[in-house]
Amino acid sequence: MNLDLSEEQQLLQASVREFAEEVVRPQAAPIDQTGEFPRATFAQAGELGLAGVAVPTEWGGSGMDSVSYAIVIEEISRTCANMGVILSVNNSLVCDPIEKFGNDDQKKRFLVPLARGEKLGCFALTEPDAGSDAGNQKTRAVLEGDHYRITGQKVFITCGSNADLCLLFAMTSPEKKTRGISAFVVDASSPGFDRSRHQVKLGVNASGTVEIFLTDVKVPVADRLGAEGDGFKIAMSTLDGGRIGIAAQAVGIAQEALEAAVAYAKARKAFGRPISDFQVLRFYLADMATEVDAARLLTRKAAAAKDSTRKNGGRYSMEAATAKLFAAEMAQRVTTKALQIHGGYGYTKEYPVERNFRDARITEIYEGTSEIHRLIIAREIFKDAGLSIG
Ligand code: CAA
Question: How high does pLDDT run on average in the chain?
């Protein structure tokens, strides 16, 4: 089993790191404070091909594999978790399903500008009463001739404040439950599509999280993604890919915290020597480095599984859930320890670790909580009647 990055992936990593250090890192702390959505930086990332990393070149993307995508999200998140999740949403929650389930006309109209970063997408599944229980959709889409009329409310929509296009899920046949949900690509400038001000949060505060209110929004039948009733499966299979992005985001956040903790441990002196001389700190850092690497490998394994299902069919829900669960929980442990190593300074805004600590917290919640991932993994274990997770 070869775990080395290919030459192309190494080059990509180096160029994304340069962009992240030069352009993304300087804005990370300011936008965390102001909550300003980094739209111009998203457009710059788009020019570099980072808005549609795994989208085929014929549809405006970079035509790379999913491991490359995980590398991009990790490198960006290592400098700014906000940009990490914004790119993750656009790539894996919006571009990916349009590429997989869209027709050529939809790809031309929606995918090309999204993959180039000329337009920004958001993914609107969650509702006040449909969080972990995503099938409990109350937003209603009623067919009226050549369009649907959509009414309802969505909450916690990342990128919603700035999105041009919204991949929206709504009930077309409530009596059919999850088999009665359909997916639509909705133009966010449509009459009746309203959004709240962005919500101020504990972390990832510049990711444009809003509520969306839909009042008789007219959506052409031509903008329905997939067949009527396919929406829940589209949402679930899309989230399998999205979870790889969030796992990579968690790895990037933890990597930044680890690097900060190593630098601080070398510079800070106590009892007449650098604190990195003390075994307790060395052991902390050894555990942190081990955990970050383990999460990175699980994330890349899930990304490779996604690529293999593209060729061979099947699902990679287990690999994605395992990577997201471990990476998100790892990020809590690593950022907590990094803050502790910094002592009182870690609790101030002088160092990045307090932001890492806050940003890491959401990775255990969005795109499926840790509890939902344990449920998915347990279902897979018992479905297979064995423990073939190696
Ligand atoms: N791929 C394809 N199909 C899938 C699937 C997958 N990964 N998972 C389930 N399905 C199919 C099932 O096969 C089933 O099909 P049939 O009707 O043909 O039998 C159907 O979908 C219903 O599946 P379940 O019975 O498993 O559905 P459930 O109601 O028990 O829900 C769940 C399962 C895992 C709990 C799911 O609701 C879930 O993942 N919840 C979490 C939701 C979530 O992650 N929300 C994130 C919001 S987006 C976000 O957070 C973005 C952001 O801000 C950054």
Answer: 97
